[in-house]
Fold LytTR family transcriptional regulator.
Amino acid sequence: MKIKIEIDENLTEDEIVIHCKSLNEDIFSIQKKITDAVGSRQQMAVTKGETEFYLTLEDILFFETVGNAVAVHTAEQIYQTKLRLYELEEILPGSFMRVSKSTIMNIGRIQSIHKNITGASEVEFVGSPKKVFVSRSYFKPFMSKLEEKRLSK
């Protein structure tokens, strides 16, 4: 495999192109790692009242459904998005994961996990008193994702 970097000062936005003979697991893995690395610096438009804000994805702790709306939680604030959780799942990078029917969490911001074998496990975040519960049915994939993330560093 060759890796080549070309500098073009005429570009208005950085672009990564992968030329490959065929799609295989290595190519998918490279694409995912690039998407995850770039994704955490991407911004998302959210609202609070009549004001629109632009948050970097790494500042978002979790998304949760509240009635008919989706709340966007940072360490200190709560915003809204018009996107539904299933839409967010499709566009968010690999550092986000659904952990219950009503919650998608940023696993890169986890401080601690209080495991509960018979019920939902509680997750605390770095720099915030907010907590999220990981339901039993999502717990095994959640722990696998954390292990995968830890091993890839």
